[in-house]
């Protein structure tokens, strides 16, 4: 593929990145402006993506993400090694506690929940599979970041410094590093109302042999239950489940 063909393909696929919770539909004019391409080029991208099922036409000459993405998500679930290996363990954890269990991955600096096993009284969550979560709020992102090597963590600190400070984390690198080193040493993190004020989450990383993490698993429950649950036992159950899944993943 020539360099011009490669860059054209990259721009065309960049159309898919223009959709989010705020902009669920776009016009060809929007796409042309945002990608800095001509209107005929924008229409060509739209036509090709429509043919591929990656876009669909909605009202008033607007375009939204297409049904093929649903199919691709089905294949992603089937190929996810954490879900393939870990689902029986997650279900045991839910049966033992009655609480929801959520699997969360870190893709670059984007935090995404990839699966949720419902407990007896499912929590109302603002976030779910595929909706990006804040990088520094909640238990799962913190245990995932704690698995980073210092050099990789410093890159996150430098590139996302303002967001980290807004989330209440230390503004200087030394203190920031120490806070995540403490989480790594503990092997878990408990968040109380960090992401959603009515919820508590107990998270642990699914460990990789190289010291990183495949993903994080969290038990999530209403903060009103905190006074009557055995938090230490929940921590043991979550960390044990994460270790078992990590061991099976090799």
From TrEMBL:
Q: What InterPro entries is this protein classified in?
A: GAF-like_dom_sf (IPR029016), HTH_MetabolicPath_Reg (IPR050707), Tscrpt_reg_IclR_C (IPR014757), Tscrpt_reg_IclR_N (IPR005471), WH-like_DNA-bd_sf (IPR036388), WH_DNA-bd_sf (IPR036390)
Domain HTH iclR-type spans what residues? 6-67
Which PROSITE patterns does UniProt cross-reference here? HTH_ICLR (PS51077), ICLR_ED (PS51078)
Its keywords, alphabetically, are: DNA-binding, Transcription, Transcription regulation
Which species does the entry assign this protein to? Pseudorhodoferax aquiterrae
Domain IclR-ED: where?
Answer: 68-250
Q: What is this protein called?
A: Transcriptional regulator
Q: Domain of life here?
A: Bacteria
């Amino acid at each position: 593929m020539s360099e011009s063909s490669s860059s054209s393909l990259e721009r065309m696929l960049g159309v898919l990145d223009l959709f989010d919770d705020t902009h669920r539909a776009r016009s060809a004019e929007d796409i042309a402006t945002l990608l800095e391409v001509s209107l005929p080029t924008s229409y060509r991208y739209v036509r090709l993506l429509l043919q591929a099922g990656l876009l669909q036409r909605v009202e008033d000459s607007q375009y939204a993400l297409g049904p093929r993405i649903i199919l691709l998500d089905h294949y992603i679930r089937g190929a996810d090694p954490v879900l393939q290996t870990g689902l029986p363990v997650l279900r045991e954890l839910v049966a033992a506690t009655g609480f929801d269990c959520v699997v969360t991955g870190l893709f670059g600096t984007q935090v995404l929940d990839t699966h949720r096993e419902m407990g007896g009284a499912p929590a109302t969550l603002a976030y779910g599979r595929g909706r990006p979560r804040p990088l520094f709020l909640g238990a799962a992102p913190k245990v995932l970041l704690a698995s980073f090597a210092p050099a990789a963590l410093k890159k996150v600190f430098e590139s996302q410094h303002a967001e980290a400070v807004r989330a209440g984390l230390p503004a200087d690198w030394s203190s920031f590093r120490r806070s995540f080193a403490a989480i790594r040493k503990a092997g878990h993190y408990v968040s109380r109302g960090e992401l959603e004020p009515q919820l508590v989450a107990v998270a642990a990383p699914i460990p990789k042999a190289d010291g990183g993490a495949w993903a994080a698993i969290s038990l999530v429950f209403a903060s009103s239950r905190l006074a009557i649950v055995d938090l230490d036992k929940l921590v043991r159950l979550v960390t044990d489940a994460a270790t078992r899944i990590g061991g099976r993943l090799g």
